[in-house]
Amino acid sequence: MSKTAEKGSGTSARPRLTVLSGPSGVGKSSVLSELRGLGEDVYYSVSVTTRAPRPGEVDGQHYHFVDRAEFDRMVAAGELLEHAEYAGNCYGTPRRPVEAALERGTPAILEIELQGARQVRRAMPEAQLVMLMPPTWEVLVTRLTGRGTEDPAVVAHRLKVAEQELAAAEEFDAVLVNSDVRTVARELLTLVVGSPTERVSSEP
């Protein structure tokens, strides 16, 4: 079972950015969807990307879609908290909307991978980094291989990356185990809206 920090004794803390990270297949999107349903006033960061929209995706809701020239301009101007390139496409987190949310007293949350989380820690040291882990390694392997529709080499690469990401758990301020989406979403909410926490951990 995950251990979450207890809130402070009545002291109101300044809202801060929470970064949710974890390997592919661990359920980050599902947890954030459940978190949205809890109805708290939280700002969910929308990433910018150079890839083309997929069917059903809405600009400004799922991503901010831009071309490479605009993305490079944003990087050069320091407008991104973090940025990275995956499979030939660029992704990044706009800095100003996050800062604006925090300035108006709204906690913010961002879902990114390990590389981006490390960049955010450097750019915004007060950010809270949360690692989402699977109940067991076997569960994660099943999630990544269960469909059986992807190239084995692609799956093998994802598993190798997942191993590296899970090995970095000690860099995070909190570690939550996704054994149950509803439960872990409430644990995450406590971290997002609560007072600054001591390091928390959990055992898969």
TrEMBL record:
Name of the protein in its database record: Guanylate kinase
Gene name tied to this protein: gmk
HAMAP family linked: Guanylate_kinase (MF_00328)
Record organism: Kutzneria kofuensis
One Pfam family of this chain: Guanylate_kin
Gene Ontology MF terms: ATP binding; GMP kinase activity
Superkingdom field: Bacteria
Chief location category: cytoplasm
Keyword Transferase attached: yes
